[in-house]
Design brief:
mainly alpha, disordered C terminus, Condensin_cplx_su1_N, DNA condensation, mitosis, Condensin complex subunit 1
Length: 1350
């Protein structure tokens, strides 16, 4: 064979005339004759074998040119077995050349056919995607056929390359073009976007192994590393594929250097290039992350190539490098078996990751925290780093990025779940063991120190310590003097002693710090110091000889070794306890921060916070129950995910107990729920009811046993504390919500245990028992059937009336809460509760009178101390009686309007149904008329009105009639409230005030008659608790009688300025409810609420902020109020500082987000400049304008209103805010608008400067006016002359409500004083008639309370 087959760079090169002895395609078969040529080729293939390719290559080339796919697929099928027998063991040179050409031709045709078919397959899959019917047609069938043939082609090529075909080439050097032909085919297959899918796994594995053979046997290492980078840059879907490929090449094929080559290529990419879009940085990042999970041991030696990207601009690469470091730590650099080099690498990697917890990009911070979470979960973090990383994680809880916060919570949860310290983390529990073990360690040290010998210090160390002092001494001794010279002459006459003895003596002198000795000849200080050092420290030769003459060094006794081991163990134990306590303290600090996130708006953060609270509670961390309780209200969340998470959390913590038997599980469940109930607030108990009720209603196997355990605890069959007994009875009430018989069948037990003879010993247990019994009433269960009530002579009511009446004459702080619940239960459950409560009032009043009478007889001649105590006791008892009267009055009204009214409607409904059944419609017309009335809602309307009128009439005329016992107490209430000098006891005043407000709920006439007295008490009383309760009562009265309370609104708002924080807090809470529920109209008085935004109390500030947040959701509410609020807050009489004003306005203006609102406010605030009188008001208005998010339309309106504020620009407080508006508008403005802004800025500066020049040099006034007149034509309206009042503006703002009225003098109101004498007229102690506000003219406050804040 005289020619060679040269692999072409492109397919067309084969038909061109080549070099010497180069094969050229002679005959390109036309498509018409191609089938016959292909058949001949197949026949030759069967008869001659693979060498037939030498004769029929032109046919294969023609197939490539004409792309006849069906023939190609058939041909490839035949080649799959032919190519396996391509090689023999030995050939001659001609034979080898023949075989080589055949192999090259075959591989070339196969690879080019594969590339061609793959290209058409990719294009066809995009163009002919399956439709709705799923019919792919012929093209789809072709794709499926090629998918099956693709794997066969790859297997054929793998089998070929695995053979030792290098022997076909001279010197066994395979030409690079041959390898490139095969690998280019592989890379073409990888470009398919579906190569990473599961269905293409055989193809993907085949390509990876084919490339692996090429890299290992055919020197494709460098080309593969470059190609990997190129493809990653353009095809992101190849990241996971190449990660798998590089891992296989490094592990299975042993080409470990491929990892280093690829990492070097990535490391050489510049940061600026990676920061650009389309640079493949996402693919690089994913590739590195997945490669690190597969072969972290191969990455560690080459990690230095990637570290440079941690300082680059691409945050994606920083994330990838941190994840690579994390995988190395988790899979390789972990455990106790690391050598020193491994530990050094581990510490260096941890330091690098730790630095990026504070990365500038939030995504990097998030992923670093996630990397730490994986490290902690894998227990790969050294114990010495726990405290430091925990501190950093707690700090990230305050990050502004939600994702960072969420990742920090996950990391802290991982720390707690995998902590190496203890299953119960409580710093309080750790304190005592730590103190005990520390004391034991101290004793052990003292014991060992007492027995230990004097420590032997090395001679070299001792010499280093004494050398400075010795040098000073030597220099001082060697100074020339007459005395020393005489001594030296005398010493010369003496005979020298033995050198060794002298050395020993000197050494002994030095060891006892005796530096002055005169047995040496004259020397220089330096030489003498060298000699002394040699003598003292000794050399290796004479060390043994010197040591014989020195005192013996004591040796450690054998029994001391055991004490040293015990000391080390004790030190380790103390250090462990210290680390545990530190870790627990950090967890407790994290809990306090994370608990505040339970009510964030981000659902994912709330869910992780709930999970964290569960984790810390399971580990018994101190204060963990606070978080569990705090998340209870989330059971009412509208977000289903949050609600389900809370329910599941409580099930996990409390409703899925562990135990061997059902009894043990029930006791564990009751114990855990009881701990949660102890000291729980009413809101917490109400939320817990939802969860516990679901448990008792679910039919759990533990339900019966749990109820039995609760009854045992309540009745005292099992010894338990009073708190757990109260928790048990409350839990029984929750169970009764699901099944009434739990309580109803045991009423006698409840009465005998907690409402019997010992009821006065524990009114709290009695109260909780009454609450439990209330769960069986219709009001709680919302029953629609016949009312469930008990007779008046039932044991329950006998016990209740006796306990209430006896408690009236006792001084028990918990009696009133019991009384309120008991009266409520009587009205809910008793038949004719009014009669029962009437007898209760009579009995209580009689007992009180008897006690007062007995006290008066027994103390006819008492001393002053006994008399004072008796009066105090009488006041407390009278206060309790008045509280009982008020509670009865309130529940009597509630009984009429709820129970009686509901029963009347029920009976009317039953009567109507009975009549309809007895009497059918007489005619079709009557039936149509009745149906029409039902549709219009006319049926029953008149009857309901009649019933409501009846209830109102009873409240108005009968409840406080003379024959009714309630009316007897009303004059007493009025007397106590109107005579604070006579009745100065705080509890009595509080009870009387509340009772009077409850009486006022009965009818409008009673309310209108006593409203002035109640507001007098509100403003004049010195007791904060009375003022707070009065605010609450007036809020309820406002809801019931809004028309009567409307003129007094200003007095209610005045409590927002109360000097006591508790009163302000109550006032802001009540007013928030009234305003947001549209009971009160929002007027200018809301400025008092705005002042609370800067209240010293943080809780009050948060309540005020919540008020405005909710108010902002109402249409234009804050927008309508802002001008009036500004005028009130900038009033000179208020005296508010500029800083406080700015703080308030900044918050309020943050709610103005619409352009139309901004535009309108600009005009209204500019108009306010006309009526503002002081410079401070001008400054406040200018600051308010600067706080607006100014838009282009607002700026135009600001220009139009130039005449309103132009004469005020000489004031810096006006000029500077307007300049800040200009600075904001200039940023990011378009060219045309920016020019207008700059022109306006020049105008502002010119006017401001002109005013200053007038003040400094009046001579330049004319010149300034000329310059001003030359600038003014640019404005729409001329400047007004200084000192002259401007004319009314003709702008669009015509809203009179935003114009500040002129101040008018008001006549001074008469001073109202309280009466301190019982004989004085009661009316003197309340507001005069002239002070009572009318409906049409709301009253003004008699005195403005000025609150200065610094």
């Amino acid at each position: 064979m005289s020619w060679d087959f040269i692999l072409p760079l492109c397919l067309g090169d084969l038909v061109k005339t080549g070099g010497i002895n180069q094969y050229v395609v002679q005959d390109v078969v036309s498509p018409k004759h191609l089938p016959s040529s292909v058949n001949k080729f197949k026949s030759a293939l069967r008869s001659k074998g693979p060498l037939c390719i030498l004769e029929h290559f032109d046919t294969g080339y023609s197939v490539l040119q004409n792309e006849l796919f069906a023939v190609v697929v058939d041909t490839v099928t035949q080649w799959s077995w032919v190519l396996r027998r391509t090689l023999w063991n030995y050939w001659s040179k001609v034979r080898r050349k023949e075989k080589l050409n055949a192999v090259k031709m075959s591989v070339f045709l196969l690879c080019k056919l594969t590339e061609t078919l793959e290209g058409h397959s990719s294009r066809q899959s995009i163009v002919s995607a399956p439709g709705k019917g799923g019919k792919k047609g012929k093209a789809g069938e072709g794709l499926l056929q090629w998918d099956s043939e693709r794997e066969r082609v790859l297997q054929v090529l793998i089998q070929l390359l695995q053979l030792d075909i290098r022997s076909l080439w001279n010197l066994s050097l395979v030409e690079e073009e041959f390898v490139s032909c095969v690998t280019c085919c592989c890379y073409k297959l990888l470009e398919n976007t579906t190569i990473g899918h599961v269905k293409n796994k055989p193809t993907r594995d085949g390509v990876i192994h084919l490339l692996g053979v090429s890299i290992k046997k055919y020197n494709h290492l460098l080309g593969a590393s470059v190609k990997v980078i190129q493809l990653l840059q353009h095809f992101e879907h190849l990241a996971s594929v190449f990660a798998q490929a590089v891992a296989v090449w490094g592990k299975e094929y042993g080409v470990r250097t491929i990892v280093g080559e690829v990492l070097r290529e990535i490391g050489q990419r510049s940061g600026e290039e990676l920061a650009r879009e389309g640079s493949g940085v996402k693919a690089f990042s994913l590739f590195l992350s997945e490669l690190a999970t597969m072969v972290p041991d191969l990455i560690i030696p080459n990690i230095s190539m990637l570290i440079t990207h941690l300082e680059g601009e691409s945050h994606t690469m920083r994330v990838a490098v941190c994840e690579v470091l994390g995988e190395a730590l988790v899979q390789v650099l972990c455990g106790d078996g690391l050598d020193d080099a491994g530990k050094a690498d581990r510490d260096r990697f941890l330091d690098t990751i730790q630095e990026h917890i504070h990365d500038t990009h939030s995504h990097v911070r998030t992923r670093v925290l996630q990397v730490y979470t994986r490290i902690v979960n894998s227990k790969a973090l050294p114990l010495c780093r726990y405290s430091e990383v925990m501190e950093l994680a707690v700090g990230r809880l305050m990050d502004k990025s939600i994702n960072v916060v969420k990742s920090a919570i996950q990391l802290l949860a991982a720390f707690i779940a995998h902590n190496p310290y203890s299953c119960k983390l409580s710093s309080a529990d750790m304190k005592k063991p730590l103190e005990k073990e520390t004391a034991k360690l101290r004793e052990l040290k003292e014991k060992i120190d007492g027995k230990a010998p004097v420590a032997v210090i090395k001679a070299s160390e001792l010499w280093a310590a004494m050398e400075p002092e010795l040098l000073v001494t030597v220099r001082a001794e060697l100074e020339p003097s007459s005395e020393t010279e005489e001594q030296q002459e005398g010493e010369k006459e003496k005979e020298g002693e033995d050198d060794m003895a002298t050395a020993v003596m000197i050494a002994q002198y030095l060891r006892v710090n005796k530096y002055r000795f005169s047995s040496l000849s004259t020397l220089t200080p330096e030489s003498l110091m060298e000699t002394l050092a040699l003598i003292f420290k000794g050399s290796d030769e004479d060390a043994a000889e010197l040591s014989q003459n020195l005192p013996p060094t004591p040796q450690k006794e054998p029994e001391k070794e055991g004490e040293d081991v015990e000391l080390k163990k004790q030190q380790m134990l103390v250090q462990y306890l210290k680390d545990t306590e530190t870790f627990a303290l950090q967890v407790e600090r994290a809990i306090s921060v994370i608990n505040t996130m339970l009510y964030w708006k981000t659902t994912s953060v709330v869910l992780w916070t709930v999970q964290f609270c569960v984790t810390v509670c399971e580990f018994g961390v101190a204060n963990s129950v606070s978080g569990v309780r705090k998340m209870l209200p989330l059971v009412w969340s509208t977000d289903t995910a949050i609600k389900d998470a809370v329910v599941q959390a409580y099930r996990r913590l409390y409703l899925n107990p562990q135990g061997d038997t059902v009894r043990v599980k029930a006791q564990t469940l009751v114990d855990s729920l009881s701990e949660l109930m102890v000291d729980a607030s009413l809101g917490t108990i109400q939320c817990l009811e939802e969860i516990v009720q679901e448990f008792f209603g679910s039919g759990s196997s533990l339900q019966t046993t749990v109820i039995q355990v609760l009854w045992e605890r309540f009745t005292g069959k099992r010894e338990t504390s009073t708190l757990h007994k109260r928790a048990a009875v409350l839990l029984l009430g929750m169970a009764a919500r699901a099944e009434r018989e739990v309580v109803l069948s045991n009423l006698d037990t409840l009465c005998s245990v907690s409402l019997g003879e010992k009821v006065t010993e524990d009114f709290l247990l009695a109260r909780d028992t009454v609450i439990t019994i209330c769960t069986i009433t219709d009001h709680v269960r919302q029953s629609k059937g016949a009312p469930f009530r008990l007779s008046q002579d039932h044991q329950l009511f006998t016990c209740l009336t006796q306990a209430i009446s006896e408690g009236v004459v006792m001084e028990d702080p918990y009696w009133q809460s019991f009384m309120e619940q008991a009266v409520r239960l009587i009205y809910f459950l008793a038949e004719s509760p009014d009669q029962l409560c009437s007898r209760l009032l009579q009995r209580s009043a009689r007992l009180l009178l008897d006690q007062i009478a007995e006290g008066g007889e027994g103390n006819r001649e008492p001393d002053q101390v006994q008399e004072g105590s008796q009066e105090t006791n009488d006041c407390v008892c009278l206060a309790q009686l008045l509280a009982l009267c008020g509670s009865v009055a309130f529940w009597q009204v509630s009984h009429l309007e709820r129970s009686v009214s509901t029963e009347l409607r029920r009976r009317r409904g039953e009567s109507e149904e009975r009549k309809e059944k007895e009497k059918e419609p007489s005619s079709k017309q009557a039936a149509n008329e009745s149906a029409m009335e039902e549709e219009l809602g006319l049926v029953g309307a008149s009857a309901e009105d009649t019933e409501a009128e009846l209830i109102r009439k009873i409240c108005e005329t009968e409840l406080l009639a003379e024959e009714n016992l309630l009316s007897a107490f009303l004059p007493l209430l009025v007397k106590v409230c109107s005579s604070p000098g006579r009745f100065s006891h705080q509890q009595l005043t509080t009870a009387a005030c509340l009772a009077l407000s409850q009486y006022m709920m009965i009818s409008p006439s009673v309310c209108e008659k006593n409203i002035r007295l109640l507001f007098t008490v509100l403003e004049r009383t010195s007791f904060p608790v009375v003022r707070a309760n009065a605010v609450i009562a007036l809020g309820d009265l406002t809801v019931r009688f809004p028309n009567i309370l409307e003129p007094w609104t200003q007095n209610l708002y005045a409590r927002l300025s109360d000097e006591v924080p508790s009163v302000r807090q109550t006032a802001v809470t009540v007013l928030t409810q009234l305003v947001l529920k549209d009971v009160l109209k929002v007027k200018g008085q809301v400025s008092e609420m705005a002042v609370l935004l800067i209240d010293p109390e943080p809780h009050i500030t948060s309540l005020a902020l919540n008020f405005f947040n909710e108010l902002s959701t109402k249409d234009n509410a804050i927008y309508n109020l802002l001008p009036d609020i500004i005028s009130r807050l900038s009033d000179p009489e208020r005296g508010m500082s500029a800083e406080d004003f700015n703080t308030i306005m900044k918050q309020l203006f943050s709610y103005i987000t619409k352009e139309r609102q901004t535009e309108s406010l600009v005009e209204k605030l500019c108009q306010r400049f006309r009526t503002a009188k002081t410079e401070r008001q001008w400054c406040d208005l200018a600051v308010s304008l600067s706080l607006l998010s100014m838009c282009e339309r607002g700026f135009k309106r600001l220009q139009e209103c130039w005449e309103c504020y132009s004469d005020k620009l000489t004031e810096p407080g006006v000029y500077q805010p307007l300049m800040s508006i200009v600075a904001k508008l200039r940023r990011g403005a378009k060219l045309q608008f920016k020019a207008q802004v700059e022109e306006f800025e020049k105008l502002l500066t010119a006017v401001h400067t002109r005013g200053l020049e007038n003040v400094e040099s009046p001579e330049n006034e004319e010149e300034n006016q000329k310059s001003g007149s030359s600038e003014m034509p640019a404005l729409r309206t001329p400047l007004p002359a200084r000192g002259r009042q401007p004319k009314p503006s003709t702008s669009r703002c015509s809203d009179d409500s935003f114009v500040t009225p002129q101040n008018t003098r008001r006549s001074k109101k008469p001073v109202i004083t309280f009466s301190s004498d019982e004989e004085e007229d009661e009316d003197d102690a309340v507001m005069a008639e002239s002070e009572t506000p009318k409906v049409t003219t709301p009253i003004a406050r008699t005195s403005r309370r000025t609150r200065l804040r610094n």
